[in-house]
Amino acid sequence: xxxxxERATLLKSLGHVQSVVERRNTIxxxxxxxxxxxxxxxxxxxxxxxLQVVETAGAAIQTPGATTVSAHTLFDIARKLPxxxxxxxxxxxxxxxxxxGRYQSKLATLPRDDFPVIAESDLPTRFELPAETLKxxxxxxxxxxxxxxxxxxxxxxxxHVVDGMLRAVATDGHRLARVAVPAPPGAAxxxxxxxxxxxxxxxxxxxxxxxxxxxxxxxxxKIRVALGHAVLxxxxxxGTFPDYSRVIPTANDKLLKIDTKxxxxxxxxxxxxxxxxxxxxxxALDKDRVTLSVTSPETGTAAEEVPADYSSPxxxxxxxxxxxLDILSEIEADQVEVHLADAAAPTLIREDAKxxxxxxxxxxxx
Length: 366
Hints:
Layout: E1 2-6, H1 7-18, E2 32-38, E3 41-47, E4 51-58, E5 60-63, E6 65-70, H2 71-80, E7 86-92, E8 95-100, E9 103-110, E10 125-130, H3 131-139, E11 156-162, E12 165-171, E13 175-182, E14 193-196, H4 197-207, E15 213-218, E16 222-227, E17 230-235, E18 254-259, H5 260-270, E19 280-286, E20 289-296, E21 300-307, E22 315-320, H6 321-329, E23 335-340, E24 347-350, E25 357-361
Antiparallel strand pairs: 1-5, 1-7, 2-3, 2-6, 3-4, 4-17, 6-9, 7-8, 8-9, 10-15, 11-12, 11-14, 12-13, 13-25, 15-16, 16-17, 18-23, 19-20, 19-22, 20-21, 23-24, 24-25
């Protein structure tokens, strides 16, 4: 194999695939990137057995062929090569020679045939989404994905179609995020799927460099996302997502309307003294005002009064400050609606009734 590729092109493509490779691997070949030279360019592939990214990059191919080489090492070399340099990759006697100008290195390789590939089976459901829509779906839900490995079925975003709407839901048991967008043509009848956290993160990274539409194909066990020159294939979480609709309150009768920025900044200020363990902030609601307060046995107390639109009976409720701030950071409108029932019931947070996104936050005892 012998090919010449521009340093910037190589770096960008390696950047997309090497982030899938785990730093610590018990199987040596999983630390490698598969490089295949054929036709008009290079095909680069990396996998962790659950997730696979394939990227195509334009290159001048002198001799077709394929090999695998350490993904992180090659990425570090490409990163440190001078800008604008032409990089020559050639393979002979089980080594890959990387040359650019006066620089040369020889890297150990492993045979291409040993590289595991996630089978490119046919995925029956296929639809296209604007890249911006997919970004919105991910950004407004992924902060609520659970990191608790024992509840593995919560370690991803639940995608399903209900009443002509494509819904994305994530929850960790303390908070829930749900976004609904009109289901694109082809999505009707799709299986309910849970997309793993790592796949979500990799797709989101790639979306920053994509304009236009993204093609999504899926079956009950796999999802494939084609974005620009990259194709990402991932296994799905094999589990049943809980019936989340039961925790979305519909009868919360106390409505607080408040400036999003004012509430967010106020919570952030008083939470500065909250202990890391509890992060609890108390909201005392009274006519047209909310008093935010934190009491920390180690540090002391902090309070701030903020104006609000509230006319229901006065009462107090506590929330985890970080969870509340995560939700408020995704509210794009100037004003946010907080629908409350009592100090122990789930609270509904949204921009307004027409907003595609809604959030549920469980209160804390304070």
